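Priority: medium. Attachment 1 of 2:
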């Protein structure tokens, strides 16, 4: 069963600069997709009110 997640791009001031809605099979799939979204800013992954992780840009 597919689950809805939200991936938020977090700007340098700590505010959300972008949001991507994801529909994934499970948490591991969502985490992999969130990692792929990382660019200049970190990405935080949420499923409802449940925080799943923060993924940082490579230096």
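Attachment 2 of 2:
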């Amino acid at each position: 069963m597919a689950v809805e997640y939200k991936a938020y791009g977090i700007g340098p001031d700590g505010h959300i600069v972008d949001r991507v809605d994801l529909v994934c099979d499970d948490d591991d799939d969502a985490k992999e997709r969130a990692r792929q979204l990382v660019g200049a800013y970190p990405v935080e992954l949420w499923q409802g009110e449940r925080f799943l992780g923060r993924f940082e840009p490579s230096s």
